[in-house]
Amino acid sequence: MTDIGFMWDTFLTLLTGVPLTLELAVTSILAGSILALALSLLAVTGGATGRNIAGAYVFVFRGSPLLVQMFLIYYGLGQFRHGLQDLGLWWFFREPYWCAVLALTLNTAAYCSEIFRGGLRAVSSQEIEAARACGMSGVLLFRRIIVPIAIRHALPAYGNEIILMLKATALASVITIMEVTGLAGKLIADSFRAFEIFIVAGAIYLAINFIVTRMLLLVEFWLSPHMRMRLQS
Amino acid sequence: MSDRGTISASDNKDKSAAVSVKELRKCFGPLEVLKGVSFEAHEGDVISILGSSGSGKSTMLRCLNMLETPDSGEIRIGGEVYGLKKTGHRTVPADRRQVDRMREHIGMVFQSFNLWSHMTILENLIEAPVHVQKRDRAECIAEAEALLERVGIADKRNFYPAHLSGGQQQRAAIARALAQRPKVMLFDEPTSALDPELVGEVLKVMRSLAEEGRTMLVVTHEMAFARDVSNKVVFLHKGVIEETGAPAELFTQPKSERFRQFLSGRGDVV
């Protein structure tokens, strides 16, 4: 029933979609993290107004399905084509690629901002006080003490979010993007051999995530000597 | 201490006073914690600040480096006065940069050490000298190693705080404060979080600092330290200085009833 030769051909075809999958994931994770950092800072330092703005953002983008957000941006905004053309933004919303990146970015920013907020709040006030007491403040305090400690707290949850995002790129296939899942859909339409093709597609995601989880473990290992090292005496 | 009457009308720097506090007041909500505290520390003074819990001694110490902002009063350290301003009901530092600048030269040792958990002991020591004071890194490392040697934990330089005992962590924290080349050292109950058998090693380091003539203000419950090491004792009770003077007189002939009670409550420790 299964045909190794066919699966190998499928694998080679789907492999050509991997760069696009990775590109979608990396772009939206990077952009989303920057947006998330701004949101979490707003939530932590922006007083009641900042907290409400960040809270509303998280509520909307975490509370509605990513697929709906993607449809809204790609198909929904198409209705406002003339307005977007007047604003000079049509080149962006015309491209399914950018619509997918935008939807993924906005969505992951909501989750990541909560992760970062948790990380920031977990920094002990005692360590911050020690830094203030020796003359640190503002950006220096943030860069040298708060961020390094917050990152260590946030890393496991952030790694989880990276993996979720990699898999979420599959949704971009529904707005005509030919990444791994998009290519798989096309192959199925040609051959009707859904089982083999999705097995291969699934295996590709599995392989990517295997590498990603190893890399995350490595980063965690590298960042936490203070948790790892034991008394040697 | 006899030249206290020489404070002139002009606002010139009083060279002998390393720290001077005048009419310090601080409320937390409806609770008035400091009700007009005044005292002076001269260069080389070791002042023990005693008092039962809630007497305001920690708050007073924390005002000296603006970890708490006083509601009113004047704090002068090394000849410089903290600028304060009123915004609504709150008093805040007039110039945050001035506060940062003054803090650079005030070493603070906390009750629970407050070492930075993500840095090795050596990194903890060179953090402020390199990144705040912008001193040469190699020079800071050499100085930090000498300080670690001095407090007896040179072999722990590449360890992380979590892997040290409480006594070692506190000695590292003292070394970290010393690495700032401070004019004044503040100790906020430095031995209160330690197991009894670890208290001695920290007190030994503090004693050696006192002997080399450092200006130290120590909030403590260690009566032996107050009596034997410090040259002045300040006893706070309910936000006012109830009694102050040289330990030899204070401990043998306490004038105030409160201080007598305080001492007798701990008579066995003395």
UniProtKB/TrEMBL annotation, chain A:
<dbReference type="GO" id="GO:0006865">
    <property type="term" value="P:amino acid transport"/>
</dbReference>
<feature type="domain" description="ABC transmembrane type-1">
    <location>
        <begin position="18"/>
        <end position="216"/>
    </location>
</feature>
<dbReference type="GO" id="GO:0043190">
    <property type="term" value="C:ATP-binding cassette (ABC) transporter complex"/>
</dbReference>
<dbReference type="Pfam" id="PF00528">
    <property type="entry name" value="BPD_transp_1"/>
</dbReference>
<feature type="transmembrane region" description="Helical">
    <location>
        <begin position="56"/>
        <end position="77"/>
    </location>
</feature>
<protein>
    <submittedName>
        <fullName>ABC transporter permease subunit</fullName>
    </submittedName>
</protein>
<comment type="similarity">
    <text>Belongs to the binding-protein-dependent transport system permease family. HisMQ subfamily.</text>
</comment>
<feature type="transmembrane region" description="Helical">
    <location>
        <begin position="20"/>
        <end position="44"/>
    </location>
</feature>
<keyword id="KW-0997">Cell inner membrane</keyword>
<keyword id="KW-0472">Membrane</keyword>
<dbReference type="InterPro" id="IPR000515">
    <property type="entry name" value="MetI-like"/>
</dbReference>
<keyword id="KW-0812">Transmembrane</keyword>
<feature type="transmembrane region" description="Helical">
    <location>
        <begin position="197"/>
        <end position="223"/>
    </location>
</feature>
<keyword id="KW-0813">Transport</keyword>
<keyword id="KW-1003">Cell membrane</keyword>
<dbReference type="InterPro" id="IPR043429">
    <property type="entry name" value="ArtM/GltK/GlnP/TcyL/YhdX-like"/>
</dbReference>
<dbReference type="InterPro" id="IPR010065">
    <property type="entry name" value="AA_ABC_transptr_permease_3TM"/>
</dbReference>
<keyword id="KW-1133">Transmembrane helix</keyword>
<dbReference type="InterPro" id="IPR035906">
    <property type="entry name" value="MetI-like_sf"/>
</dbReference>
<dbReference type="GO" id="GO:0022857">
    <property type="term" value="F:transmembrane transporter activity"/>
</dbReference>
<feature type="transmembrane region" description="Helical">
    <location>
        <begin position="162"/>
        <end position="185"/>
    </location>
</feature>
UniProtKB/TrEMBL annotation, chain B:
<dbReference type="InterPro" id="IPR027417">
    <property type="entry name" value="P-loop_NTPase"/>
</dbReference>
<keyword id="KW-0813">Transport</keyword>
<dbReference type="Pfam" id="PF00005">
    <property type="entry name" value="ABC_tran"/>
</dbReference>
<dbReference type="InterPro" id="IPR003439">
    <property type="entry name" value="ABC_transporter-like_ATP-bd"/>
</dbReference>
<dbReference type="InterPro" id="IPR017871">
    <property type="entry name" value="ABC_transporter-like_CS"/>
</dbReference>
<keyword id="KW-0067">ATP-binding</keyword>
<keyword id="KW-0472">Membrane</keyword>
<feature type="domain" description="ABC transporter">
    <location>
        <begin position="19"/>
        <end position="263"/>
    </location>
</feature>
<dbReference type="InterPro" id="IPR003593">
    <property type="entry name" value="AAA+_ATPase"/>
</dbReference>
<keyword id="KW-1003">Cell membrane</keyword>
<dbReference type="InterPro" id="IPR050086">
    <property type="entry name" value="MetN_ABC_transporter-like"/>
</dbReference>
<dbReference type="GO" id="GO:0005524">
    <property type="term" value="F:ATP binding"/>
</dbReference>
<protein>
    <submittedName>
        <fullName>ATP-binding cassette domain-containing protein</fullName>
    </submittedName>
</protein>
<keyword id="KW-0547">Nucleotide-binding</keyword>
<dbReference type="InterPro" id="IPR030679">
    <property type="entry name" value="ABC_ATPase_HisP-typ"/>
</dbReference>
<comment type="similarity">
    <text>Belongs to the ABC transporter superfamily.</text>
</comment>
